[in-house]
Design goal:
This protein is of the alpha/beta class. Helices cover about 40% and strands about 15% of the residues. The chain has 2 domains: about 130 residues, Aspartate Aminotransferase, domain 1 (Alpha-Beta Complex), CATH 3.90.1150; about 260 residues, Type I PLP-dependent aspartate aminotransferase-like (Major domain) (Aspartate Aminotransferase, domain 2, 3-Layer(aba) Sandwich), CATH 3.40.640. Helix 5 packs parallel to helix 6, helix 12 packs parallel to helix 15 and helix 13 crosses helix 15. The structure holds pyridoxal-5'-phosphate. The site of pyridoxal-5'-phosphate has 13 residues, from helix 5.
Length: about 400
């Protein structure tokens, strides 16, 4: 199949606009992806015709709404190759899912002195929930270093493991460097050491075909907005046995079997972890997003983004004074860079005047920045709609930065 990026671009209404008199080159997909018409329409159609609160309603709209909401659970199961829909918990996003694991699993099963291994390239969402747990029960956080190229070496993971390791938690893809971590190998090592495996899939979900059973992840989390869906919705995958062993994290409506003032019993997973009215239209929107990317095919998207990554890497490396940060062999569609005389925020501002949207800063990975001896980077990130003209616009605007700042 030939990948027709120009056709797909027409599915994204936001791309049709000009910014400061230039065609929009949206290179900030790692922060959040633009939304295709299919998602926008599915959500507005749902809100116009089918919306009501879900579960327990006897009227037509509630039943319709419940069916449309619950239909997305098996879609997520299939999208990440999980075994059962009961293993999919709706959360507000990757961050919410990480906190759920830290509090419901970590607080129940970990003891003072138990160790959690993370890597130096983690997003704050995969650092701070474990630090909160450290304050609550005195666990120890061990950090696997990252090489100057931005890789996580298997030997270094091995060295961080001990007989106290209970969890190894890592990003499938780094949101700063684009590095694809060897998830399957890390998971095998962790399991050999008797630890569970938490994979932060916030950046892999929209760029790589994900197979949680092939990785043998015990937990896998992602956010809907990174995969062309709405904000406020995401998912936690956890192996059924583990989910069944976990107590609820939050209490309220919808997660109970029965309530008296003396005693409350809870539903089975996943409902036990979904207290309160969920973001219903957002779940429907996420379903539309998964349908949309599945029709294009994750393999095709990955191959297209790989070509764009190569093109962008070549274009930026050819500009004097630009240094690419993160040169791992196995990378996904992200290029972070710095320039000799311009701060990343200045780069971002100059690029914006040319219609090029990138992100500048620490990218919610302050410990990684410190590890690399940097305060910030400029980051261009790609999606299924990124074309070579976007990259040409990026390179031209970066040359302009060089003219201005030297
Ligand atoms: N993990 C990684 C690697 C990310 O890039 C992000 C968001 O940028 C997150 C976790 C958190 O995602 P969210 O803010 O959608 O919960």
């Amino acid at each position: 199949m030939t990948y027709d990026v120009e056709t797909y671009r027409k599915d994204f209404p936001a791309l049709a606009q000009e910014i400061h008199g230039h065609p929009l080159a949206y290179l900030d997909t790692a922060a959040s992806a633009l939304k295709p018409r299919a998602v926008i329409d599915a959500m507005s159609r749902f809100l116009e015709r089918d919306y009501a609160n879900i579960h327990r309603g006897v009227h037509e709209l509630s039943q319709r709404s419940t069916d449309m909401y619950e239909a997305v659970r098996p879609m997520i199961r299939d999208f990440i190759s999980a075994g059962r829909e009961e293993e999919i918990v709706f959360t507000h996003g990757a961050t919410d899912a990480a906190n759920l694991v830290a509090q419901a699993w970590g607080r129940t099963f970990l003891k003072t002195g138990d160790e959690i291994v993370i890597t130096a390239l983690e997003h704050h969402a995969n650092i701070v929930p474990w630090q909160l747990l450290r304050e609550q029960i005195g666990i120890v956080l061990r950090v696997v270093p990252v090489t100057p190229e931005g890789e996580v070496r298997i030997e270094d993971v091995k060295a961080a493991l001990s007989d106290r390791t209970r969890l190894v938690a890592f990003a499938h893809v780094s949101n700063v460097l684009g590095t694809i971590l060897p998830a399957k190998e890390i998971a095998a090592l962790a399991h050999d050491a008797g630890a569970l495996v938490f994979v932060d899939g916030a950046q892999s979900i929209s760029h790589l075909p994900v197979d949680v059973r092939d990785i043998d992840a015990d937990f896998f989390v992602f956010s809907g907005h990174k995969i062309y869906g709405p904000t406020g919705i995401g998912a936690l995958y956890a192996k059924q046995k583990i989910l069944e062993s976990m107590p609820p994290y939050q209490g309220g409506g919808d997660m109970i079997a029965s309530v008296t003032f003396e005693k409350t019993t809870f539903k089975d997973p996943p409902f036990r972890f979904e207290a309160g009215t969920p973001p219903i239209a957002e779940v429907v929107g996420l379903g539309a997003a998964l349908r949309y990317v599945s029709e294009i095919g994750m393999d095709n998207i990955a191959a297209h983004e790989d070509e764009i990554l190569r093109y962008a890497t070549e274009a930026l490396s050819g500009i004097e004074g630009v240094r690419i940060v993160g040169t791992a062999k196995n990378k996904s569609g992200i290029v972070s860079f710095i320039m000799e005389h311009a701060h990343p925020h200045d780069i971002g501002t100059v690029l914006d005047r040319s219609g090029v949207a990138i992100r500048a800063g620490h990218h919610c990975a302050q410990p990684l920045m410190e590890h690399l001896g940097l305060t910030a980077t400029a980051r261009a990130s790609f999606g299924l709609y990124t074309n070579k003209a976007d990259i040409d616009a990026l390179a031209a605007a970066v040359r302009k930065v060089r003219e201005i700042f030297g």
